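Pipeline run #58 for the internal structure catalog. This entry was flagged by the ingest filter as a single-chain record with no existing model, so it goes straight to prediction. Upstream metadata was stripped on purpose; only the residue string is passed forward. Reviewer on rotation: M.T. Logging verbosity set to normal.
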Amino acid sequence: MLISRYERMIARRYLLPGRSEAFIAVVAGFSLVAVMLGVAALIVVMSVMNGFRAELFDKITGLNGHAVVQGYGGQLRDWRQVVADAKATPGVTDATPLIEQPLFASFNGRVEFAQVRGMRIEDIRANPALKGKEVLGSLASLQSGGEQVAIGSRLAESLGATIGSSISIINPSGATTPFGTMFRTVQYKVAAIFEVGVYDFDKIFVIMPLEDAQTLLLLGDGVSMVEIDTKDADKVGPILAPLVDKVGSKGQITDWRMMNRELFEALSVDRIVSFTILSIILVVASFNIVSSLIMLVRSKTRDIAVLRTMGASRAALMRIFITVGTAIGAVGVAAGGVLGFLFITFRAQVVQFIGLVTGQEIWNPQMRFLTELPARTDPFETIGICVMALLFCFLATLYPAWKAASTDPVQVLRYE
């Protein structure tokens, strides 16, 4: 919308009301602050939701892959052929044999539930979810047959174990005797303590070499599943479709969407609901802009009448008041963007400050899955939020601008 020089001058003067119009300035200030808070809240919440989903997805698929081929009965004997077929499938980047079994871990009389995972040494060292995540010790020290394991940091805290501690892994499915099934208990030395960043994983995972896991679970040369990574996680179904017929007699393919469907669906619904609720703040800010402009129009009725008699058109008056309202909204949007990015940048400090003030733990890893508050800003989404806010502000100016343009100068100046 192009405006002339005198229209810009008048709009600029109306943006800075005099002393007699201080109340109008206060209302306009409230409108600006409301727009700022609405934009900042939307940017922060959507960035946190995006970061939460992305971090959770990276952590889950980093340990579990984009899909797994699970053997029938919990065992996959011909796993080498499955790995070869998977790697030969277009779109598959890697296939990793592994053993995963829920067991128990014990140390100094403490017993905790543990998810024992057996992996080849080279796969342990190359796994992106584990690589560089050691808190103590090193994954490189794990050796096949060395009776060594790596455990999650939360599990280490629960057991009271540290580097060099000898923990016992208890397998309830042990040898069968005339007196019943005897638990199989094997001691392992803790060689590394890791923290992947997902509370549930750090609380239960015990990583050991594949051969040691086979010995512990009496699997011989078998594994329980083959983990598969693809080029595009969102297209995992079509990519693995040719593999279904090849491995159908050996095991069942389950992708990440099937394994975590409820979690990611809940995140999607929460994201939509949060966006809708927080958008109401922008609607309220728009009503504030309507109120401030209506009061401005009423206080400038005489000025409007004079401008009309001097030749100002109705369209010119509409442009003036639309410019005033949109300028308030634009400043609020810009300030909201700055405030939102500051909050995202210093989110850890903000969470700590709120926790100190309220005396409550704002980010509880046991409830939030992740150990720290994530954030990932989508530039296109941020631009969309700003455009939406500006659109609301623009629409809010139309009615007051139309009222100003509809002012009859004859009626206003009749008694002047």
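catalog note: The two ends are 34 Å apart (CA to CA).
catalog note: The longest strand covers residues 92-107.
status: ready for reviewer M.T.
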